[in-house]
Amino acid sequence: MKLTGRKILVTGCAGFIASHLAEELLARGNDVVGVDNLSAGKREFMSGMMGNDAFTFIEGDLLTMDLGRALEGVEVVCHLAANPDVRLGAKNTHIHFEQNIQVTYRLLEAGKDHGVKDIMFPSTSTVYGETEVIPTPENYGPLVPISVYGASKLACEALISSYCHTFDQNAVIYRFANVVGTRSTHNVLHDFIRKLREDHSSLEILGAEPGTIKSYVHVKDCVRGMVAGAEASDAQVEIYNIGSRDWMTVKDIADIVVEEMDLPNVEYHWTGGVKGGRGWVGDVKKMLLAVDKLEARGWSPELGSREAIRRAVQEILA
Ligand SMILES: NC(=O)c1ccc[n+]([C@@H]2O[C@H](COP(=O)([O-])OP(=O)(O)OC[C@H]3O[C@@H](n4cnc5c(N)ncnc54)[C@H](O)[C@@H]3O)[C@@H](O)[C@H]2O)c1
């Protein structure tokens, strides 16, 4: 899938990962149309692109808007808009159905009618559920998600694959580990930093000590991986894991945040968690993705989990 000199629609372009991807696509000489309803995304995240003649921003809701204008002349769709909050699924199942599955279906329908050739889609490690093989490779199965979010992304993967084979399109699907870095707005780092700004001496941590153990990847590595994977892809539907080669516990994360905030003597208070020590219902306890497939295509993450977390904490604090 070529990613230069093309007209590309980036959904969710005011969001964390998509704003970085859109910048990279512009830098590679593509025309980018961005759509976002600004429900979670921020205009300021697009400030580096707004003056660029090759960038057009459309404020709109993908669930209801007429997609024809956004798709005019578009060859590639990078569909990053979604509701990515895993916790939400235990309280409201409809949002993931609507914002993830239904929006993807609308976009696929409109895309096939407007001549879209290529699709890039960020899926998630949560599609694997709790795996018996770690690091987990892309061909692991059966896929048994334990969160509604994971299920919604798996449904999107299936829809995208079926459209490619039915309507002669191509797709690259990426299963991300936890992505961190500048412009993130909601994750464990924000939670810890907010709490520690309010109380310098104690930190409430969801779960049972030492918490879940997972892999983290910096957004710069993630976006580089997306581009490298797309450009190297030769299958009609290609799936790549994107993560770093190591993992770390929630306690390791807390230690780094405390260190970077220069707070001595912080006491950790573990809530004990739910369902055997998870932070929340649907929280996978162990996650480490095998990234050999994408590494064989010339990509490798510059930062490991700890370095990615440290860099992200510094970025948030700055
Ligand atoms: N951040 C991670 O760790 C992670 C991990 C795995 C997968 N992903 C996937 O990557 C993608 C981007 O995630 P993110 O962390 O950057 O999230 P984000 O919330 O920062 O970005 C999503 C963007 O989509 C927009 N949006 C949501 N619903 C919309 C709608 N109906 N119409 C128009 N715009 C809408 C939001 O305003 C936001 O700007 C998502 O698809 C997510 O599922 C993220």
Please describe what this structure looks like:
With 318 residues, the protein is an alpha/beta fold. It has 2 domains: 7-179 and 217-242, 3-Layer(aba) Sandwich (Rossmann fold), CATH 3.40.50; 185-215 and 246-287 and 302-317, UDP-galactose 4-epimerase, domain 1, CATH 3.90.25.10. It has helices at 16-27, 68-71, 93-113, 148-167, 188-198, 219-232, 250-260, 292-295, 305-317; strands at 7-11, 31-36, 55-59, 76-79, 118-124, 170-176, 178-180, 202-205, 213-214, 216-218, 237-242, 248-249, 267-270, 286-287. The strands form 4 sheets. A 7-stranded parallel sheet has the order 3-2-1-4-5-6-11, sandwiched between helices. The longest helix has 21 residues, at 93-113. Bound molecules: nicotinamide-adenine-dinucleotide (NAD).
What's the helix and strand layout?
Layout: E1 7-11, H1 16-27, E2 31-36, E3 55-59, H2 68-71, E4 76-79, H3 93-113, E5 118-124, H4 148-167, E6 170-176, E7 178-180, H5 188-198, E8 202-205, E9 213-214, E10 216-218, H6 219-232, E11 237-242, E12 248-249, H7 250-260, E13 267-270, E14 286-287, H8 292-295, H9 305-317
Helix pairs in contact: 1-6, 3-4, 5-7, 7-9
The structure holds nicotinamide-adenine-dinucleotide.
* Percent of residues in β-strands: 15-25%
The level-1 CATH class of the largest domain: Alpha Beta
Under the CATH scheme, the architecture of the largest domain is: 3-Layer(aba) Sandwich
Radius of gyration: 19 Å
Q: Structural class, from secondary structure content?
A: alpha/beta
* Straight-line distance between termini: 37 Å
Strand order of the largest sheet: 3-2-1-4-5-6-11
Oligomerization:
single chain
In terms of per-residue confidence, which ranges show pLDDT below 50 for 5 or more consecutive residues?
none
Shape: globular
**What letter string, H or E per element, gives the SSE order?**
EHEEHEHEHEEHEEEHEEHEEHH
Average per-residue pLDDT, rounded, comes to: 97
Main beta sheet: 7 strands, parallel
Q: What ligands does this structure carry? A: nicotinamide-adenine-dinucleotide
Helix share, percent = 25-40%
Give the CATH H-level superfamily of the largest domain: NAD(P)-binding Rossmann-like Domain
Total helices: the number is: 9
Quantity of strands, as a count: 14
| Count of discrete domains | 2
CATH topology description of the largest domain: Rossmann fold
